[in-house]
Amino acid sequence: MATPSDRLLGWRAAARWLLALLLAAAGLSHLTWGRRGYRIVVPDWSTRLTGLEKDAIVVGSGVVELVLAGAVATIPRQRSVGWLVAAFFVAVFPGNVHQWRTGRSAPMLRTDRARFIRLLLQPILVVWALWATR
User: Of 43, 105, 107, 108, which has fewest CB within 10 angstroms of its CB?
Assistant: First the structure.
């Protein structure tokens, strides 16, 4: 019979795999079908700050998402992986705010309501990354 501790470990494992899949899908979309849409929402200030073109920022973030997905999948209970994923979610948050404030559309974020809900989901993603990798 499974104990509450066993069930919690099962939920955490499922949350990790779902997180890895989410990161992988987001990373692939940044590199392929969603690339143009993501370039549209990259804030101008980020190109000045980094010295990179918008496309390079989109590609770079996609690569980071794929690396993080791989880390979550292959080093499942490494707390530092969770902190890195959480830090990534925090780092992209200003871009999400910019997208909401400017009303620019991106894949699956074509309305103000969708963009606003995306903002509210960001803290949940941070907590999810930290909880799933404990």
Answer: 108
